[in-house]
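A further point concerns the way the authors explain their paired sequence and structure data. Nothing conveys this as quickly as seeing an actual entry. An entry of this sort, consisting of the sequence and the corresponding backbone structure tokens, reads as follows:
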Amino acid sequence: MRPETAVVKVHSQYNVHTEFYACPAARKTIILVNGSLATTASFAQTIKYLQPQFNVVLYDQPYAGQSKPHNSHKQPISKEDEAEILLELIEHFHVDYLLSFSWGGVASLLALAQCPARIEKAVISSFSPLLNAPMLDYLEKGLGYLHAVDRENMGQLVNSTIGKHLPSLFKRYNHRHISNLDEHEYRQMHAHVHQVLKLDDHCHMTCLAGIEIPLLFVNGEHDEYTSPADARLFAQHVNDCQFSTISNAGHFLDMEHKGAWLQSQQALLGFLQASPNGHQQRRLRLAETTAIAV
């Protein structure tokens, strides 16, 4: 099914390309948050198991994909700005669930820390609170390639590190995509990586205790960059969280092979479609009451 597309004005200054996949039988809507240098196309595999169950919202950041022609790119935008964009899209599309991938987890957690009343559950995939040695090595090498706008080496770096478990077809797509990015996209990612490397708390752990909804963290068994063990450190900071490890998978999870796709489907749908507990039911009633009052 082809999505309904629209350019939505958000945060008073950005124009965001959105795609809405409607499911006539769905009662819930989920929004998907891209990783760095990615576009809505990166969720092509995920859509296949979400859209039969939910309405699905995809979007490109103002500097990326089909949002690019609608925005000026004078300076990089911050992760705080990305969080505000996400919050406005949640309201615009009446979103109930959130799924983020990789570095999309930063903006997602920042947004969730503001306790948007509509969001009931969220899935944070391929992300961890720790910049471990493999991730630091990847980021430091990438910083040089991004600064030099070295498209060839940047493409090779992604495919030989976080993308090393991808099938060859997806590696070719990755390389072609990264090789054709505009200079402002390299500047955007360079600014983000530079900031991350200077921060002691790259995902703002201090604000996570305020998140009241259930979170599911999903990581690949063989992902050494955002490992399942590292992701479990979130349990020290998040009140209601679960963890799922996709066996025989790396960073890109459902893109890597059919088995990982099936496991991802089972983990996400099992979590999102589970009945809410007593605390969640009270929160949902409060959110509904607030919406009616407004």
Q: What stands out?
A: Residues 183-198 form the longest helix (16 residues). The chain has a mean pLDDT of 91.
